[in-house]
Amino acid sequence: MNEYQLSKRLAHVGSFVPENARLADIGSDHAYLPAALVLQGKISFAVAGEVVEGPYNSAKKQVEKNHLSDKIIVRLANGLDAVHLDDEISAVTIAGMGGALISEILESGFQKGKLSGKERLILQPNVGEVAVRKWLVIHGYKIIAEDILEENKKLYEIIVAEKSNESFSLSNREIQFGSFLSKEKSETFIKKWQQELKQREYVLTSLKKSAENQSEKIAEVEKEIEEIKEVLSNHVG
Ligand code: SAM
Questions:
Q1: 52 lines ligand 1 (CB under 6 A)
Q2: Which residue, 124, 133, 20, 27, is CA-closest to 76?
Q3: What is the pLDDT of residues 34-73, one digit of tens each?
Q4: At 167, is the secondary structure helix, strand, or coil?
Q5: Helices 99-111, 129-138: crossing angle, 10 deg rounding
Q6: Candidate of 51, 61, 76 to mutate for ligand 1, largest count of ligand atoms within 8 Å of Cβ
Q7: Cα 94 to ligand 1 centre (Å)
Q8: How many CB atoms lie within 10 A of CB 214?
Q9: Which of 8, 25, 75, 237 has its CA 20 to 30 A from that of 200?
Q10: Does the beta carbon of 96 sit less than 6 angstroms from any atom of ligand 1?
């Protein structure tokens, strides 16, 4: 992967960034995503935020190497602290982290007034998608698109949201599986949940063998298995 040839995962994330958006890419190791989008001519302004010195320096080098310093500002900052009011950001990407960390970054940014509510959020949690969906619903963001893809034997979800004036809610099932993803039931989605099902069944077998009383945990895992089977419905087998 480089600034000309993004990974499949980052290319999918980038596909949700609107044309001419003013982008903040948070956790922008190497600034690959903003650099690629600028080089493609899709956007002409981005902030690349990084909290760790090493990746921050890599991002800076990448931007300088491509003579993009007038279009991409690289900032050493924690989460959405990288965003300044006069950046007039209209899209935020946070990719390649756990869902819990993404939600923490959003919450802290929200508390500090770093989110105007006008920006599209494009979030790609490696795990913990539930935390992300819960954060969005609680804070009045409507999920407008979802994507799931496989790269190097890993499965990734992308969640795209915008602030909504309409009331927006999700059922527990939609929080867990994604409203778009569970409707579309793509092959990748089925694969993910077949893997999750196998993993839960393994956990359940181990719990049942335990010498300690695991009845509460067993009931919990059995419920999860039931829910996954329901979503997979006739795909299980
Ligand atoms: N976004 C890129 C991608 O999807 O390929 C890089 C993902 S990399 C695994 C995660 C990056 O997020 C690391 O460079 C890490 O230093 C950075 N990071 C983690 N927590 C952060 C935070 N609170 N604020 C800014 N960057 C953060």
A1: yes
A2: 27
A3: 999 999 999 999 999 999 999 999 999 999 999 999 999 9
A4: coil
A5: 20
A6: 51
A7: 8
A8: 16
A9: 8
A10: yes
CATH number of 8-184: 3.40.50.150
For the Cβ of 26 lying below 6 angstroms from any atom of ligand 1, the answer is: yes
Global confidence as pTM: 0.95
219 C-alpha vs ligand 1 centroid, how far in Å?
Answer: 36
Q: Two tokens at 167?
A: 């009331």
Q: Where are the domains of the chain?
A: 8-184, 188-233
pLDDT in tens, 77-93: 999 999 999 999 999 99
SS (H, E, C) 121-162: EEEEECCCHHHHHHHHHHCCEEEEEEEEEEECCEEEEEEEEE
Supply angle C-alpha 20, 25, 26, rounded to 5. Answer: 160
Cα of 28 from ligand 1 centre, angstroms: 6
